[in-house]
Every structure is written in structure tokens, then in C-alpha cells.
Q: What sequence folds into this?
């Protein structure tokens, strides 16, 4: 299995806030050691490797994880906690997953 993390650099040259947060979580938990490659989707350069991957897989949010398993179609994960649970097989709190989903989708709300 190969895991690629794609982080975004915004037009002003700064790393996106969510990308920074996910990077810190990966480093704090040691999960960064499970990432095989880190690519940058640079909004200032449409031909950057990360931008090309985002275009290829129709991904419109960052960061995202590309998971490639031999003999299987590539998977894209845009929710960190779901990626941790489903791909890294590590425990997460449902509350954290839901909070991340809501933060990433402000048009959603609890019923």
C-alpha cells in the first residue's frame, strides 16, 4: 500500500489551515511515518503535482490522502479521522469525525 498526502499552498503562499492541523496531528501521533509521499497542490502553479492529482481525481478540498493498493482502484480520503480509522486501522472518536465533517461542510447541521 502506498499513501500520498496532498497539502495545499494558497495563492498568498501560505499553507492552508486545515493542512497545517492535519500535519500536526500526523506528527503528534507518529502517523506521519506511515505516509509514503507528501505532495503540494500549489494554487499558484496549476501544473504542481498536487494540483494535477486533485484534477485527475476531481478533488476540491485539501488536504487529501491518495491510497493505492496493488490490484485495486486508488482511494481518495478527504476526512482525516475517517482516513485514520478506515486506512490506518486506528481508533478514533466518532465525535472527532463528526466535528471534522461539520467544519468542512458549513452547510450541514445536526437535526
A:
Amino acid at each position: 500500500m502506498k499513501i500520498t498526502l496532498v497539502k495545499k499552498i494558497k495563492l498568498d503562499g501560505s499553507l492552508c489551515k486545515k493542512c497545517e492541523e492535519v500535519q500536526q496531528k500526523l506528527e503528534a501521533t507518529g502517523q506521519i511515518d506511515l505516509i509514503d509521499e507528501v505532495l503540494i497542490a500549489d494554487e499558484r502553479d496549476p501544473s504542481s503535482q498536487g494540483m494535477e492529482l486533485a484534477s485527475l481525481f476531481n478533488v476540491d478540498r485539501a488536504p487529501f490522502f491518495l491510497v493505492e493498493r496493488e490490484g485495486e482502484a486508488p482511494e481518495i480520503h478527504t476526512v482525516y479521522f475517517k482516513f485514520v480509522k478506515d486506512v490506518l486501522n486506528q481508533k478514533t472518536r466518532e465525535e472527532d469525525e463528526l466535528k471534522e465533517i461539520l467544519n468542512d461542510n458549513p452547510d450541514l447541521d445536526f437535526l
The helical segments are 17-29, 49-56, 80-86, 94-104. DSSP finds four helices and four strands in the chain. Residues 5 and 65 are 5 Å apart (CA to CA). The mean pLDDT is 87.
